[in-house]
Predict the structure.
Amino acid sequence: MKSLIKRVVLVLIILGLVGTAAAAYFWRDNGQSISFRTAPVTQGELIVSLRATGTVEPEEVINVGAQVAGQILSFGKDTQGKTVDYGSTIEAETVLAKIDDSLFATQAAEASAQLQSAQASLQRSVAELEQTKAKFYQADRDWQRAQKLGSSDALSQSSYDAYKSGYETAKATIAVGEAAILQAKASVAQAEASLQRAQRNLSYCTIKSPVKGVIIDRRVNIGQTVVASLNAPSLFLIAKDLKRMQVWVAVNEADIGKIHPGQPVTFAVDSFPGEIFHGEVGKVRLNASMTQNVVTYTVEIITDNSSGRLLPYLTANMQFTLDRRSNVLRVPNAALRWIPSDERIAPEYRKTLESPEAGKKSRGEDQRLMSRTRKPEDESSNLGTVWVVEGEYVRPLRVNMGLTDGTMTEVEGEGLTAGIQIATGVRTQATGPADTTNPFAPKLPSRQGRT
């Protein structure tokens, strides 16, 4: 009997040791502690902004082309005496390039010779008219004498008729001479116009800058032949003033109503990381564009570039300032969205949240309703709830939500001050010893199967 009792006790002891070991092993693998992820309530400035991408553009660009066809023979000199090239600074009327003008010079010479010939013809017509007038004067005198004598023994009828005919012919010849002068003058005017056209075409062979500025693009090389047909070929692109730049930004139609002239803008470029540039909205272009059923409007941003750091065609990351709040309390948006489980709420607040006054909705649905974030354009306040950490529990604190920038939200409420730690979620941490098993070793299907 005693031996049986000893055996039973021994079995119980063994079972106790095995259970203790199993519990320790289980706790080692699954022991965890839960803590809150927290963030402090901060006080400062809150800026509601709209982000977009744009391109830096010169404020005014002049496209210099060629109106005649020919081969590029040479380039001009810039203000520093160097050959005109990319980035050259030039004055107005600076020679940019010269096109082969041999053909146009020949045409100008031909037009000049034609003008001289027309002028000589005019002089000849004038001289012939004077000669005709002299003949008319003689015919007029003879005819007057013939009229006084009449047809008589002193003047035969044939002579009388001859004087009359001579007078009429001389009179008509004057009209012909005057018409010849008019024709000669018209030929002179035509020759002058042809000469002017030839000289203008000849002058087009010398490409000059119409403005003072900086060359941002040279699109031809020496020896290249330009062909001017229906469209003038572009040779140079000149920016009048790179001290004032524009940024062209494509804004979605859903956000264009928030943009207005004079609105402050900040932007950054990848060329100068960490540096912020400032500007303001100049105007909104009305010619919208559609790409893959997305309608966008181009917004022109004006910015000062006195430092010369901004280069044409850089990509700019824009931030339009829609609204601004100074010296306000801010909380992360995650704190307004997070809802704790019942066991994490302080016991004295559980009954309050579950009371009939809270409404027919469940606490979770009610908190989701209250934790909605407010849109930037909404001017009315919106209720929300944040959870203040107090030891192992959290307690609710009702707040009025204001503006949000997508990350932080303006809040105000009774008892809410800067520095209070509020919960944004839970953090699970393992409390048992680290698992030192080989991660690549094969795992047993279940703990019950271990021996």
The two ends are 31 Å apart (CA to CA). The longest helix spans residues 102-149. The mean pLDDT is 81. Residues 49-57+242-325 form a domain with the Elongation Factor Tu (Ef-tu); domain 3 fold (CATH 2.40.30.170).
